[in-house]
Amino acid sequence: xxxxxxxxxxxxxxMISIAIIWxxxxxxxxxxxxxxxxxxxxxxLFVHALLPYLLPYIILTQWLLKIPSSGKTTRNWKRFLKAYxxxxxxxxPVGAVTVSEMLKNGELTRRESGYLLAACHAPGPMFIxxxxxxxxxxxxxxxxxxxxxxxxxxxxxxxxxxFSLTNNGNKDENRxxxxxxxxxxxxxxxxxxxxxxxxxxxxxxxxxxxSVGNVLTSVITSAFTIxxxxxxxxxxxIFEMTSGVQSAADxxxxxxxxxxxxxxxxxxxGLSIHMQVFVIGKSxxxxxxPYVFSRAFSVVAVPAILYVLL
Length: 310
Description:
Layout: H1 4-30, H2 32-66, H3 76-88, H4 94-104, H5 110-119, H6 125-136, H7 140-168, H8 187-223, H9 228-239, H10 241-252, H11 258-268, H12 271-283, H13 289-309
């Protein structure tokens, strides 16, 4: 039996997607210089602010996760703590990489991986303290407090995840212990191979969404009498986090709410990071609903916690 309402909904979604794609194509054709500037800015941010901090940690994390374990069952809290420590301190999207790899290795169930994906999601310490704290906020101590705020919010959600998993159990799921590991493979070479695909994904999304944000900023400010700084910061924050915080620093550095604006933008993450997480998570069939709720929680919680710490 044909489900006509569902078929109609899929057709509408397809039409909307096609309209968006063609609209962006025309905007890129009409404003190639602005699109180029946005892509160039995204590439520079990736090379200078993301790649040096992200790549070494991803390789080491992947290498560690690909080393075969003894096969003994590990206590739940130890596995969850392992996921949190490895996933939360390497920067976006290391948490998604860590949780997905642990799910593939049979260390987590699908339900556990969904909650842990939501909790093990944080920017790297070097990015927050080095780039955001030192270069944007101009104060290392504020960078440390921002990092603490992010992890306090994540730990609150992590405790909620532990409570939910402990109370409801996982009776309907079994772990397939190490079913996907190749005995003759090299963990280090495999970590290099998979890390390169993650880095390409990060670079692609950062450059693309920076370019889109730049073009839309130009169009909106030309069509409406809206302040360029506000428009650019809001749009870049929605599309690409790193470009968003850079724009906020350029236009609102002296404003009293500037640190909390940075905290909100980093917690929002932007479509670029969400796309990275969704691609990596879906490759291992990780449930994404807890992740969506955790992002909404963090956007409110992190600036509030930072306000208390400051």
